[in-house]
Amino acid sequence: MAVRETRASLRRLFFFFICIAVGVAAIVALRSVIQSVRGVFGAEAKSLIAADVLISTSRDWTPDARRTIEGRLAAAGVVERTDTIETPTMVRPEDRSKAVAKMAELRAVQPGFPLYGSIDLQGQTYSPALLAGHGVLVRPELLTAIGVAVGDQIAIGKAAFTIRGLIVKEPGRGMGEFSLGPRLIIAYDDLASTGLLGFGSRARRALLVKMPEVGVDALVKTLHEDFKDDFINTRSFRSTEDQVGRDFDRAENYLSLVGLIIVILGGIAVSSVTRVFILQKMRSIAVLKCLGARSGQIIAVYILQVMALGTAGSLLGVAMARGVIASIPLMLGPSTSILAQAHYGVTWSAAVQGAGIGVLVSLLFSVVPLLQVRFIKPSLLLRDETVRRPRDWTGIGVLVAVSLALVALTAWQAASLKVGIVVCVGFATLAVILHFAGQALILLIAPMANSRSFPLRHAVLHLSRPGNQTRVILLAVGLGAFFIVGVRSLQASLLSEFSLQVAADSPDMFLLDVQRGQADGVRAFLGDPAHGAGAFQLIPVLRARVVGVSGRRTNLETVEAVRARGSLAREYTITYRDHLEANEHVRDGVFWNGPSSEAEVSIEQGIHDRFLIDVGDTIRFDVLGRTVAARVTSVRNVEWRESRNGGFMFVFRPGVLDQAPQTFVAPLKGPDGAEARARFQHDLVERFPNVSVIDFHDVMETVRDVMSKVTLAITVVGGLVLFSGGLILIGAVAMTKFQRVYEAAVFKTLGANTRTIARMLLFEYGVLGSLAGLIGSLGAVVLTWGVSTYAHEIPWKVFAGEHIAGVVLTALLVAIIGVVSSLDVLRNKPLATLRAE
Amino acid sequence: MTMMKCWLAAALALTVAGCAPRSDDRDDLSRAASKELAVTPVAARPRIAILGDSLTAGLGLPKAAAYPSLLQERVDEDGLGFEIVNAGVSGDTSAGGLARLDWALDGDVRILIVALGGNDGLRGLPAEELQHNLAQIIERAQARGITVIVAGMEAPPNYGRDYIVSFHKVYPALAAKYHLAIVPFLLQGVAGHDNLNQRDGIHPTAAGARIVADTVWAVLRPLAESRRRPPT
User: Fold this and answer.
1) How far apart are CA A520 and CA A516, in angstroms?
2) Rounded CA gap, A523 and A519, in Å?
3) A177 neighbourhood in chain B, CB within 8 Å
4) Of A88, A349, A788, B109, which is least surrounded by CB within 10 A?
């Protein structure tokens, strides 16, 4: 009977089938891409520290510590390990006639290094053999600095080393670490011959470990416990201590959010088509009942049908996902990007999950209405009435069981709990809001039912009559818009965060210890185009301690009282200037204009919040033995993430401190190209020997490289969401046309022309689309706020464009689909439709 | 750029640290050493200025636990009537010390302790530069009739023998040339001992600072005795 039933309504079933396939395909394709992108993220993160786990110490390894570590590593099933030692040292040409020494960062490595990533050399491939017999690899800057060439010998400590190659890039270049000189790499076993390591030497010893990924977090935690009182640090590639780590974390969070959302979106699509599909069957069921079919029999027939279609649709969905994923590399073109490295296949877990959701959701949403079959009376045929059903425990029981299965499927995603909570709370809240919005809409437009315009009057009646589509469309489209707009604006906020970090004009060099007498000279040097430096800034810095506060809420008379406030007593770096930086905003009070002989200070929001110091209070500072009492005239908020030029807790008004001892620091954009940079540093230091130059161009480049890969990955995933989300919504809305068909035919029979009906539909769907889009977009604002604040920990920004586009596009999309999907009805002769029904 | 901020904070320990809003409350250290500073009238006491870097400024310690504050306690206990001026600036090199000499010598400074060079060493600056800058500081102080004590620093062994030796020679050479009292090594008995240094392995803990104060006091005390103001 199921087969016969299927044959009878083939077209409609086909549409149902396609809708399920699209929903499942979206889930499977996105989940697969996300999984492989994550894998690549992991590989990138590992190459940043060149290991899975990095255990390091600034002291000697003690035998006890080594024993403990060995034990833990053995227990964790470590696959591979290698030791390195880093130490700053002075190098000079072995040729004594060149009397020039330069500070360098020496790294001694064993043959196993690096465990991940690779050492890139100029014009050759790295192999440990290059270091054998006192070979050394150096950064190109060193050649300029001390006037040597590849093949020459340099003296490191007591030993002579031969330069065998030039380092372009090395993995595990301690992210965020500070270095004052170019890198040298030598063999671990040669280090002893230099005599550099002895009592009082400053060196960082590290043990790099490669191990199965599952045990990484546990090992890090155990070692943290073991060495919490020692000078031993442990971090994994997942560590979020530095900026890049946090960015990886955010990108992962975003991906799991998208994964979760696509599952829900797919579920919504499948559920709404199933529901419509089953409701359409009610009359046939009544007929069957008239003919003596039992409820159980009927339920079995339709469940069998839905299940078969659900399964087939899901399988088609998996196949479609394969096609989509296989075409991604074609669309991206040949690139060396992170996505090119990703493995483009459908992962099994994604396929099973997608298909499972397809079948379960269609089952869930067909079983519940089908259970009503038991209460359908044959009289339905004669009186088109809605059935008031008694409380149905079987129905509730089935509902709960299938829902639990769904929750389990969704929870399968190892998503971030925080993100999951934000999304689920948002989902539930929005569903409730949409439900009430539907009721409110019906009440609100009810007066229009008396409108003179025929299409308007009937559109309103459609929206408010019993058994209407209002709530179903609102729910599906509203939630859809909510998630799609939410994902898009989260993407926009993440990408703007990332682009902030990789802005090409960010400073990549830093000068320390420029003396007051040198400031003009350095300024001239940096400004001279011949030296090739980009934008720069000279910032005066002084050291000061707070020794007292007289204020409304805080009164600290003595140094002891200040000390009781913890970090307020620490030494602060202060500056003075007459302008606000781009990353600063005045929160309270007024920032000065020009110098003054009165001491005034602007404090950072954090100081205001933590120590309850307000505008109008007076802070006493000890500036190198002299007390300066400064009135607080403004509270500033510093956007630390954008603090390209550092940031200061205390900024003074120019005037009082001008004559105090101070040095200048200078963040600047160095010249392009390794050679130009080397010459730049060399010339600068020759003229200002006490000035130290910190070059972090390479670290910036690494970060930029990684971030651009992550950015691309996120953009592609976001694009897929938009595309598949759109398809899903189209399916969900188009499916509702089957309820319209009969009415449209009746209207036509009664003399309505095609245009009238089209207008009616346009109005009806337009209102629903606008309302759903509006609520969804507003919900998305809240969603982005929740995720930005609680999961990503980045400042929340509203991307108005995304939200407005969300409302407009949703309204347009729904209205157009509403009309277009009914086009065939409009064009057909009404009799054909009526007969078919 | 955030990373730069972090670097500033984690920088060369003796450098321009501390722009970030970190809650680096090192209060365990401060409680250990929160002895009350004797409050004596500030007016017109003769001064002993200590021109130094973070070791003098007491980076990571409350000011009262830095060695200049401990020296103030000794001075007060002995009733010598001097005020110790802590002219230590974290991150400062000998060039920085020279630039701010006049500020440090404000008031009736009788004795100047020059405790610079640590950052020159950590940054691998040429020893000749160090010697040149310190010589100018000494000459200018002596021209004002101030007694100068020079406190030596050592470059750590990882900088290589050549550099260490050239660095090491600077202080005795200056002491001989200008007839100065010398503290051979400011961190004598402290450098390299884990339990006396903070996590960075450079800056003394409160206990380490007490040893530094002992080391300096041994040289300072006789000179302080001889240069104290005759009782009125």
Assistant:
1) 8
2) 6
3) 7, 10
4) A349
Tell me the chain A residues in contact with residue B58 when contact means C-beta distances shorter than 8 Å.
571
- State pLDDT tens for residues A445-481: 777 777 777 777 777 777 776 656 677 778 778 888 8
Interface test with B, best of A60, A156, A178, A702 (most B CBs within 10 A): A178
> In this complex, do A58 and B200 lie within 8 Å of one another by their Cβ atoms?
yes
Quote the tokens at residue A566: 């913890």
Instruction: Show the tokens assigned to A410.
Output: 């969704």
pLDDT of residue A701: 78
CA atoms within 13 A on the CB side of A738: 22
Mutate to test the interface with B, among A573, A649, A700 (most CBs of B within 10 A): A573
3-state SS, one letter per residue, for chain B: CHHHHHHHHHCCCCCCCCCCCCCCCCHHHHHHCCCCCCCCCCCCCCEEEEEECHHHHCCCCCHHHCHHHHHHHHHHHCCCCCEEEEEECCCCCHHHHHHCHHHHCCCCEEEEEEECCHHHHHCCCCHHHHHHHHHHHHHHHHHCCCEEEEECCCCCHHHCHHHHHHHHHHHHHHHHHHCCEEECCCCCCCCCCHHHECCCCCCECHHHHHHHHHHHHHHHHHHHHHHCCCCC
Q: Is A797 exposed, middle or buried (0-12, 13-18, 19+ CB in 10 A)?
A: middle
pLDDT along chain A (837 residues), means of 10: 66 74 79 75 80 89 91 90 93 83 92 89 93 93 89 93 92 63 92 90 91 88 87 81 71 74 71 71 75 79 82 85 75 52 64 78 71 68 55 70 67 58 73 82 77 76 69 79 83 79 76 89 92 88 89 80 79 90 88 87 92 92 84 89 71 89 89 85 87 82 75 76 76 70 76 79 84 86 79 74 84 83 71 65
Query: ipTM for the complex?
Result: 0.78
**Does the beta-carbon distance from B18 to A622 stay under 8 Å?**
no
Which is it for strands A584-589 and A571-576: parallel, antiparallel or unpaired? unpaired
Establish, for the pair of chains A and B, how many residue pairs have beta carbons separated by less than 8 Å: 231
Signed CA dihedral, B21, A416, A211, A347: sign only = negative
Residues of chain B neighbouring A692 (CB-CB closer than 8 A): 123, 125
> Do the chains contact at B103 and A692, CB–CB below 8 Å?
no
Domain boundaries, chain A: 2-42+246-501+704-836, 49-245, 509-698
Instruction: Catalogue the active-site residues of B.
Output: 54, 200, 203
> CA-CA distance, A129 to A113, in Å (whole number)?
12
Give the pLDDT confidence score for residue A342 in this predicted structure: 53
**Cβ neighbours of B123 in A, within 8 Å:** 103, 180, 512-513, 692
Nearest-by-Cβ selection for A90 from B6, B94, B163:
B163
Alpha helices (H) along A502-589 = 516-527, 559-563
Contacts of B157 in chain A (CB under 8 A): 195-201
User: Nearest CA to CA, how far is A696 from chain B (Å)?
Assistant: 9
Amino acid type, B188:
Q
User: Domains, chain B, ranges and CATH?
Assistant: 52-227 (3.40.50.1110)
Place of tokens 């300072």: B220
pLDDT of A101: 86
- CA A317 to CA A29: how far, in whole Å? 9
A502 to chain B, minimum CA–CA distance in Å? 9
Q: Do B20 and A640 touch (CB under 8 A)?
A: yes
User: Would the CB atoms of A89 and B87 count as touching at under 8 Å?
Assistant: no
Q: What is the mean pLDDT of each run of 10 residues along chain B (232 residues)?
A: 35 36 35 35 76 91 89 93 90 90 88 94 90 96 95 92 92 96 94 86 92 96 82 44
Length of chain A: 837
